[in-house]
Amino acid sequence: MLTATLTSPEATGTFACLLAAKLGPPALVTLRGELGTGKTTLVRDVLRALGVERVVTSPSFTLAQSYEGRAGLRLHHLDLYRLGAGADVALFAWEDYLDGLSVTFVEWPEAGAAELPPADVDVLLTHRTPESRGLELRAAPGLERALAREMTAAGIEQ
């Protein structure tokens, strides 16, 4: 597990760029944390780093948004906060977003736990101060080590 403190929105943006550089399809990135910890902001920053130019909005009410990044990279952003248990989970079009050809970000993955495969990258964000967030990242050990080195070089506190 990799832990860090993202001391500002700029530090979050820097981390997002470092993470984006390591992602390619297929990848499932789950984001957990209380309301207001910056899950959508982190996804937005990663999508920007992957070449998304159009407006990136939270899919809280639509459940899913799809984007195209550089070189046609397929990107999906799911927010499962409002996904109801039972039939909602069973009827959701998981195959459209977990197709093996995309990078998919899922906020509130607990709501879809019965249908989601294991995450390639799992991020937990916590409140530290009004401006800073705690970060816990779980991924393959090689990815964690590479990100830790690059975060140190970028001045992100670990």
Give the helix proportion (percent range): 25-40%
Order of strands, widest sheet: 1-7-6-2-5-4-3
The general outline is: globular
Tally of DSSP β-strands: 7
Major sheet summary line: 7 strands, mixed
What structural class should be given to the helix and strand makeup?
alpha/beta
How would you spell out the order of helices and strands?
A: EHEHEEHHEEEH
Return the CATH class: Alpha Beta
Instruction: Give the number of domains.
Output: 1
Oligomer: single chain
For the CA atoms, what is the radius of gyration? 15 Å
CATH homologous superfamily annotation: P-loop containing nucleotide triphosphate hydrolases
* Named CATH topology: Rossmann fold
CATH architectural type: 3-Layer(aba) Sandwich
- State the distance separating the first and last CA atoms: 11 Å
Mean pLDDT level: 93
Give the number of helices.
Answer: 5
Report the portion of residues in β strands.
25-35%
Description:
This protein is an alpha/beta fold. It has a single domain, classed as Rossmann fold. The protein contains five helices and seven strands, in the order βαβαββααβββα. A seven-stranded mixed beta sheet has the order 1-7-6-2-5-4-3. β6 and β7 form a beta hairpin. The chain starts with a strand and ends in a 5-residue tail after the last helix. The mean pLDDT is 93.
